[in-house]
Amino acid sequence: MIHFWCIFTSNYKIMARQSISFTKPNDEWLKSQVDSNEYSSKSELVNDLIRQARKQQAQIDWIQAKLDKAAKSGFTDDSKNEILAASKALLNG
Asked: The whole model's pTM is what?
């Protein structure tokens, strides 16, 4: 079961608070990341992982849109180098 709470931070941002369960290996990995001072808390780590996943999904969506456009048109005026440069720019943020 997931529980929801709202917390007001000092700058009035609302953060959703949830209670989630992890498998033992995942919980141990999360703890090791916090213990090694990579992150200050499990929450910070989970939020970072979600941000990374969202960024990755945006990249996948961009590539899929390019593929869909190419499939519909059959051709592109972009060179291989232009497509590669645009892909690298997106991946590097």
From this structure: 0.59
